[in-house]
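Entry type: protein chain
Record version: 2
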Amino acid sequence: MSKDEYTGIEYLNAIKNNELPHAPMASTIPMRLIEVYEGSVVYEVSPNDHHLNLQGGIHGGFCATILDSITGGAAHTIMDKGVQFATTDLNIKMIRPMQSGKKYRGIGQLINAGRTLVVTEGKIVDENHKIYAYGTATLMIIRH
């Protein structure tokens, strides 16, 4: 089956259930889809020493990539077959530094879906639900 033959939520569930491969980016930025619901997704994310910046902390680009993935994932859950989307705006707030070797969760949620634009939010949290980064995204719906 091609990607266009799945609804967004069907496609993400197939990835979660290992019926389809994760995006290639998931090998660069270790993230694994663990929960999918209409309007929300949860990823497990695990930064390692390959993601350190010159100061020894996890690079902000790691957080930005996770937030882009989870906000896009939330939007993906509501897409019909053959419908795509693209991030047009991503706002990020880094709240505290992430640590190499620690597991986090990236939680993406739908805020609003219109005919042409979708607005989502995402956060990266630890096991105690302490927030490390927060973001919002606007995504454009692309119909073919």
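Comment: The helical segments are 8-16, 25-28, 60-76.
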